[in-house]
Amino acid sequence: MNEFDVIVVGAGNAALAAAVSARENGAERVVVLEKAPREMRGGNTHWSGGVLRFAFDDPREISPLVPGAEQQYENFYEGITAYTKADYHGDLMRVTNGRTDPVLSRILVDNSKATVFWMNEVGRIKMEPAITLSAVRKDNVMIWARGLVVRAAHEGVGLSRSWFATAERMGITVRYASAATELLLDGRGRISGVKVRDADGLQTYSARSVVLGCGGFEANVQMRTQHIGPLVGQAKVRGTPHNQGDGLRMAMAIGAMPWGQWAGCHATPISADWGDFAPREMTDRSNRLSYLYGVMLNRRGKRFLDEGEDTALFTYAKFGRAILAEPGAKAYQIFDSKVVHLLEPRYQTSKPITADTLEGLIAQLDIDDKVQALKTLADYNKAARGAEEGFDPSRRDGLSSRGLTPEKTNWALKIDKAPYYAYSATGGITFTFGGLKITENAQVMGTDWRPLPGLFACGEMVGGLFYDNYPAGTGLVSGATFGRIAGRHAALHAE
Amino acid sequence: MSDGSNQSGQPIALRLAERICAFDEGSATERALSQARTSIIDTVAVTLVGIPEPCTQILLKTPGVCGAPGKSLVFGTHVRTSALDATFVNGTASHALDYDDFSGVLGGHQSVPLVAALFAVGEERKATGKQLLLAYLVGVETEIKLARAVNYHHYDKGWHPTSTLGTIGAAAAVAHLLRLDEQRTAIALAIAASLSSGLKANFGTMTKPLHIGHCGRNGLMAALLAEGGFDANPSAFEHHQGFFNVFNGPGKFDAAKALAGWGAPLEIEEKSIALKQFPCCGSTHPAIMMMLQLAREEAIRPDDVRRLEILPHGRRLRHTNTPHPQTPLQAKFSVQYAVVRALLDGAVRLKDFEGEAHLEPAVTRLLALTEARPHPDMADDSDKQWGAEVIVTLKDGRRLSRRVDDLVGRGGDNPMTQDELWEKFSDCAAHSLPREQIAPLFDRLETLDAVSDINQVTQLAEVNTLHTGRSKGPISFAHRDEQAAPETTWVP
Fold first, then answer.
1. Which of A265, A285, B136, B476 has a beta carbon 3.0–4.6 Å from A74's, enabling a disulfide?
2. In chain B, how many domains are there?
3. Domain end call among B404, B434, B457
4. What CATH number did the domain enclosing B229 receive?
5. β partners of residue A355
6. Of B362, B379, B404, which residue is a domain's last?
7. Which of B436, B485, B486 sits opposite A155 (nearest CB)?
8. What is the Cα–Cα distance from A162 to A160, expressed in whole angstroms?
9. Residue B300 maps to which CATH number?
10. Strands (E), A256-400
11. Residue B186 sits in which domain range?
12. Nearest Cα to Cα of residue A363 among A377, A384, A351, A380
């Protein structure tokens, strides 16, 4: 009874794109195996901001995705700069220090626009201008971040909901709380199915094609510690607790080739208020990225980095790791009333610790050396500047402290207007960069440099695209692009 | 007829309490739980849309309201107060637009008296989602079974059953959530009987939604008092000066029906339970549904339409025949406008009844092609009074139509799909929640059964006011040549 044409392991954006594509390309019986129970479904997609980075030559090309935007916003299309394939590929090369896979990155860039339109038309994913995430207000007008104009309506939660609705409408079977544990081969070494653990025990699911789209290993403490190191080993997890590297290990157990930066991951400063996993309700709002408007203290009561080195975009990735290196992997971000309105809306998901004096604030914090903390703040305030000296939150204002180690080189305002606010912060891991080597048909390559017949991979499991960093908004488009390709070839293979 | 005093000598409140206390997870079918979830989602939606309404805002500003400290949230705000006050305000908000679900047997709205109270006390006691769902089912069952005992005399006499019976239903639901024993549950019901009120004379005014906040609060208070050791007469229903005789009058009720078949099957599984899908007069809904279905299935574009004919049941048309609405209120009672809106947008939303939405050029152009008349095949005295047919003539000459014979709200055999429910929820929630909280809240409500502490849900309905940096003004973009575009400032 568990006989299918295509089995898709995982239920995030990439996996559901693969399932929909397999169905669209003629596979009759498609099943999605979601390890999580219904209430935790959807993988990291649920936690994402839903932004879709894709290449276009003329801004008006995007109009079918965002109907009505022109009526709703002034100068909407006049404000968008073209984002060519060369721009997109250049960004990929730049942030990965030239290491992105030349073949896969081309497939991603060349298909990016078609993928997003396919998500909209076939996936029935509603989209909208990504204004609150990627447009920046300057004076009285907004300025777009290049290439980041469109997102899924209602962000990752909306994206996930739409994919499931489309999958159900297309007659795709979704099995919740069903964990694939092993890939099964026939006598000739071809994929014949998967073994699944569910509430009733172990089941065998049969199919000629299996698509793995079940994410990286960021939630697996052993794999994190082993591959990325002990600092990231103790990081909190920003997304699903279910990405435990199962798919990677299953595939490597039958000879798949690891590929890409296994020591690399995406990590950011997040709230330390929660347990090892950020609550699902908080989606991507666990981030704590407005440290540039205040100072960060460790548990010894000391500053440990230049909070104002640059805008958050350029510092968040390394600051996540920097906090992990501090005692208890924890820090406090301290703000005063002059700047609290500048904090990102995502700070609303925590209740800050507040006090009318700095003494009263420090007394409430989990800081071991409170005398030192007060001294640090006093020293900082002596070296810091007044707002009238040219504070400008919209750019690097050069308002540097004078005589500190480390110095705060921009936005170094005195912390002197009550009430005062403290937010906890630690390092949170988003996803891992290490994956499997795939062909341009999304087939998984074996360590013998021959594809494994019937096995496909997509999403965060694809190795080689991202090294050191990745351009925001690329993950979902990459997931859907390779998911779509994997689904198509899985359907063809199953015939 | 029975006056309820003769059987087994046990007071009615106690016999009801036995049934309430015996109700557990095994008593609820999957269908009942699913309907309960849907109704709770729907009620949260209409609460969020009702928060900014004048009736709620006046209440919130009234000295003494929400002054008590507590852990219970006034939805869509940062106010935390006592469970009693949160119920008062949220309950009032939930009925402000009369957009909540209803029951024909009750002659009123079964969910709004219960949901505000259950969330408010559930937050304080850290109830699970499953406990909340079961308590909700107990409340609905109590209300509608009581309605079978007193209606329609009760309704025709001028009582507002949502409020009068809702008080008792809320007491039953909260008693179940608090796990009161049979004696105390009976006391809670008896106290509630004394607190019951609500006059239909105040329909059409702010006092109608006030009934709901008041009845939920009273029901909650009855259960809390009973928990604390308060006393009341367990015969308060059948007593010669009790609920039945005072509210309905001797011989005008059938008390046995309040108990007969209690919980088996549950009233919530009846076909007479329905949701309102669109924010306009219910009489326009069958025609809207047919327009949406026709446009979707035949891929009709507004520009292709040469003529639009709307043929509702005559009784549905009389008060909705408004070919050219001039105010938002008239628009709500215009079947022509509602159907044109459905054709134009593929949806009918709250914003379509605000400002001058009904005067948009695309609307007036289509209204000029539209004609409504009573359906010739749908007789006034037929037992099916909620039919409609929509006929579209296209410019290429094709004439397409869809027809339904009887469609009272959405429920029973024709439940709202999750997509339709999400459409309504997101439309409503946008009136008082930041956009990024709307989909996570819906997601959590959809899986309410698995929620281990109801505060996980309500935190998503809280609006934090600490950071007010976000601009609310109209958005304009700098010309691309005038920008030094940042890579991005947003970090995923």
1. B476
2. 2
3. B404
4. 1.10.4100.10
5. A420
6. B404
7. B436
8. 5
9. 3.30.1330.120
10. 258-259, 265-270, 295-297, 331-335, 353-355
11. 12-274
12. A377
pLDDT at A302 over 90: yes
Q: Which residue of B has its CA nearest to A49?
A: B492
**pLDDT at residue B469 in the model:** 44
B75 and B221: one domain? yes
The pLDDT tens digits for A341-381 are: 888 888 888 889 999 999 999 999 999 999 999 999 999 99
Q: Which residues on A lie below 8 Å from B485 (Cβ)?
A: 81, 143-146
Number of neighbouring beta carbons within 10 Å of residue A160? 28
Would you state the structure tokens that stand for residue A393, as one six-digit string? Answer: 């939150």
> What is the per-residue pLDDT across B306-355, written as a single tens digit (0 to 9) for each?
999 999 999 899 889 999 999 998 999 999 999 999 999 999 999 999 99
In a shared domain, residues B78 and B41: yes
Residues B145 and B100 in one domain: yes
Q: Are A365 and A352 in contact (CB under 8 A)?
A: no
Name the residue among B444, B450, B485 with its Cβ closest to that of A145.
B485
Considering only alpha carbons, which residue of chain B is nearest residue A343? B467
- State residue B473's pLDDT score: 62
The two three-digit tokens of residue B134, written as one number:
């079961």
Q: Do A79 and B479 touch (CB under 8 A)?
A: yes
Tell me the pTM.
0.91
Q: Is residue B492 part of a domain?
A: no
B286, B359, B380, B262: which is closest to B21 by C-alpha?
B262
Contact between A345 and B435 using a beta-carbon 8 Å cutoff: no
Taking alpha carbons only, the member of A389, A456, A402, A425 closest to residue A290 is A425
Q: Does one domain contain both B218 and B310?
A: no
Q: Within chain A, what is the greatest distance between any pair of CA atoms? A: 77
Instruction: Identify which of B418, B440, B483 has the shortest CB distance to residue A281.
Output: B440
Q: Is residue B44 included in any domain, yes or no?
A: yes
- The first and second tokens of residue A232, run together, are 């990231």
Asked whether the beta carbons of residue B469 and residue A343 sit closer than 8 angstroms, the reply is yes
SS3 A81: coil
Answer yes or no: is B237 within a domain.
yes
Q: In sequence order, what are the residues at sequence separation of 6 or more whose Cβ sits closer than 8 angstroms to the Cβ of residue A135?
A: A129, A142, A143, A144, A145, B475, B477
Q: Are the Cβ atoms of B492 and A472 closer than 8 angstroms? A: yes
Are residues B476 and A142, on separate chains, in Cβ contact within 8 Å? yes
Scan for tokens 């109704």, then name that residue: B39
Do B370 and B262 share a structural domain? no
A residues 25-64 lying closer than 8 A (beta carbon) to B:
37-39, 46, 48-49, 51, 59
The answer to whether position B433 is within a domain reads no
**Which of 251-270 (A) contact B at CB < 8 A?**
266, 268
Q: What is the C-alpha separation between B20 and B33, in angstroms, rounded?
A: 16
| Residues B432, B462 contacting (CB under 8 angstroms) | no
Chain A residue numbers touching B426 (CB-CB < 8 A): 154
Hunting for tokens 């199962």 — which residue is that?
Answer: A246
Same domain, B263 and B290: no
For chain A, how far is it from start to end, CA to CA, in angstroms? 19
